[in-house]
Amino acid sequence: MAMASLGQLFYISYILTNLVPSTVAQHLLTPFCIPERGNYTNGSSYQANLNSLLTSFSNTTVDYGFYHSSAGEVNGIGFCRGDIGPDKCRSCMNTSSLELRRLCPNSKEAIIYYDICTLRYSNRSIFGTWELDPYLQQPNSDNFWDVNGSNQALTKLLRHLRNKAASGGSLQKYASGEQVDFQTIYAAVQCSPDVPEQQCIDCLDESFKIIPVHMNGKRGGKAMAPSCNFRFEIYLFYEPLPDAPSPSPTNFPPPSFPPPPTNATTGNGMHLKLHALKILLLD
């Protein structure tokens, strides 16, 4: 009886950890401390500027999931997955700020990847230019029974989502959706919002190249880079899109909201359900 109860507990734990989309815990993937950029000394102006920068990210009232700022010579960028609401995003930014300083003490450049957010800082300019390194990839251990079929379906889905995300506005470049003609595959792609449209496409295209090498026929996987990321699974891992952010009425016109999800059909008959968040901002 005790063994049966233990087995049920493991099963419930698996369901809560892997299958319930509302469970978006801040799972740390990895930090990268960049030694090539050198170290700062304790008590230096760089440390004071870094602390000021990361504290501002933790205390921000921004509710659209994209943060960028500078303090002295320190530049920082942070963004959350596009389906994550403001409270969870700010919580992830706060945790990232604390963990970066703990895990990369005295590093002048570092980046940390969580499941739902990315935070980086550097003493060089990092805004508006796409970067692929340092790179993290995590393939699922299970395979599809039809490797070729799954790869083709995944490639088509990711390309559609890539274009949707890249055409987003300056606050968010994110798209999610699923394909249903093969075994259902859910996917989400994203770029750092400061990256221009073509650079977003280039970043994602480069990251997709690891799929045939490290994720060939896999039933799930994720890849994280400073300027872009993607993830795919056979279960729904993302949440419904939150409301689009409302720009200041003194600076911007009313935002353009996306229509409800619809079925799209490609030229070869493949049906896709695409959900993209596009925020159109006029300077």
Question: What does the model show?
Answer:
- With 283 residues, the chain is an alpha+beta fold.
- The protein has two domains: 22-122, Gnk2 domain, C-X8-C-X2-C motif (Killer Toxin P4, Chain A, 2-Layer Sandwich), CATH 3.30.430.20; 136-277, Gnk2 domain, C-X8-C-X2-C motif (Killer Toxin P4, Chain A).
- Helix content is 30%, strand content 24%.
- It is built from six helices and twelve strands.
- The protein has helices spanning 2-19, 45-58, 86-103, 147-166, 197-208, 211-214; strands spanning 28-33, 66-71, 74-80, 110-114, 117-122, 136-139, 173-179, 185-191, 221-224, 228-233, 262-265, 271-277.
- It is elongated and about 60 Å long.
- The termini are far apart.
- This is Gnk2-homologous domain-containing protein.
Number of helices: 6
* CATH secondary-structure class of the largest domain: Alpha Beta
Poorly predicted runs are 1-24, 244-283
- Give the CATH H-level superfamily of the largest domain: Gnk2 domain, C-X8-C-X2-C motif
What radius of gyration results from the CA coordinates?
A: 20 Å
Describe the main β-sheet briefly.
Answer: 7 strands, antiparallel
**Strand element count:** 12
Give the neighbour order of strands across the main sheet: 6-9-10-8-7-12-11
| Count of the domains | 2
Structural class: alpha+beta
Task: Name the beta content range.
Answer: 15-25%
Helix content: 25-40%
CATH topology of the largest domain: Killer Toxin P4, Chain A
Determine the N-to-C terminus distance: 66 Å
Biased composition (Pro residues): 246-262
Signal peptide: 1-25
Domain Gnk2-homologous: 28-126, 132-237
Region (Disordered): 246-266
